[in-house]
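A quick aside before the break. I want you to see a complete sequence-to-structure record at least once, exactly as it would be stored in a machine-readable document. Don't worry about memorizing anything.
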Amino acid sequence: MASAQELDQFLAAVEKKAFKQAVYAVRDEAAALDVVQDAMISLTQKYGDRPAAELPLIFTRILQNRIHDWFRRQKVRFAHETPFSALGTGNDGEEDFDPLELIEIRDGGPIPQDASAAFANQELLAILEAEISKLPSRQREAFLMRYWDELSTSETALAMGCSEGSVKTHCSRAAHTLAAALKARGIVL
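That is the input. The structure line, written in tokens, reads:
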């Protein structure tokens, strides 16, 4: 069973990744904060007595369920309401959210030595994040779990509620789509 300290450490370690994943999915910073907070509260209340090794997979599944719940609520809400932006009086859909503000340089990671390299890295990250946000939801979900959260294929399949083959297919399609999008922009990694 996870101690209170282990649970606190886990939540502190996962909060930024979870927020980023939620922002990719819901495309609204305030809603993403609510989704992550709900997921963390649910983990603490319902699964806080589980072993610490099980927490990452359980939390990932809870977070994905909360994201899906958010979309369901939005669908119902907008079926009965007309947003102001649809009336032409709101903004043009531009967001003030800057995803680069959330990126931290990892310890031991490559740090650009000059301003041009730093600018190129920022530009590449912005392009990559824009392309990731365009992926279909299941592909984005599988891609982020496998390569961002570094979950195994079986853990990702369990978290997504699908087969390992589906996870591999979603990840492969996402990688090919991202590679093609980058290549179209003249970026070859």
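Two observations worth writing down. Helices lie at 4-26, 29-47, 55-80, 115-134, 137-148, 153-160, 164-184. Residues 57 and 139 are 18 Å apart (CA to CA). We'll return to this after the break.
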